[in-house]
Amino acid sequence: METTLARLPDGLSSAYAHLGARRVIAVTSDEVIVDDHSIGRFPGARDLRFSPDGSRHAFVSQTASGRQGVYVDGLQIAEHDGVSLSTPVFSSDGRELAYGAYDGGAWWVYRGTTRFGPFDAEQPGAGWNTCPLVFTPEGALVYAATRGDAWSLERDGETISAGWRLVRDPIYAAGRLLAKARRDGAWYAIDGIESYGPFATLNDPVASEDGSLAGFSAESKDGGLIIVNGKVVARPSRVGMVVALARGGVAYQAEDDAGREYVVLSGQRMPICCSVRGLVLSASGDAVGYVGVDDHHREYACVNEERFGPHANVDHLSLRLSPGGRLAYLLAEERSRIAVDGSSGPGYDALWSNAHFIDEQTVEYIAQRGREFVHVVAEHPR
Questions:
Q1: For the whole model, what pTM was predicted?
Q2: Which of 12, 99, 141, 148 stands the most exposed, by the fewest C-beta atoms within 10 Å?
């Protein structure tokens, strides 16, 4: 079943969809379209987004003076010399907006009309002066920025952790503040006020949905490590890029001595692949979804030891597991399709959301066919 959400003129340059609210905001030749109507021309409009409940929208656009403006619901609320990429962001209740901005030779972090800074325009290492901003569920604003030759991680102007050479992409996941940091040539994982390291390499920290677990994969001089809540839970000879956590289990990627990759779920090793991409864990922790690639470069969508395919191109970022362990994923082929356990749905020009399980046999998502954005409800019986 399809329901039309918007019909767009020619020249789509970017779009953002909110599946829960069934809304779309798009840019076509500098014209911003919200749902099924134009709200005006906004040159260079970018970073389109909805509030968490989908009731408000925001974006950045060039102003008449050639500077950059921040717009909420089509109205300009601020103007700056520059506005950071990947901002603005809404608070969890949708009432507040935060963003990074450049004025007078310095960077600032804005929370509404309150600003924090100034931060240095020249960075001590790779990355942005202000990493992506994140609101905590309790309403605090967390960000990373530079002062002098060091990075600090801050919460509403107060330092949480300082003295780092680089802080990468802090996230606030289920009540836990997680980040990667670098100092003296080594990597450290930050979990709240705690830090773990030093490590030669470190992959992005993650948290379980309920916030009870936080972990990461890393390599030290003694080999690979899987660390959860500060404790080593596994020592693979070589670690992969991804760890997934749920209250009932831990899953991670690893490599054998020949460089072939596999997934481990709660100590059980899955079949070896030429390579593995993506990792998603069911809430119960008893099912893991991933993309496995064989020696002939054929791709399979996998749940535990079962595999579906082969496919030409599975988007590993689209993997979603139902509570009962069914796997939905995007097939990015000549026509974009959502598949569930190997059963493909109709083809579209583009997909603008991942699939969401309504129940064990039904998924919904937002797709584009020609100039139309549609909300799709598709049945995939077992």
A1: 0.90
A2: 148
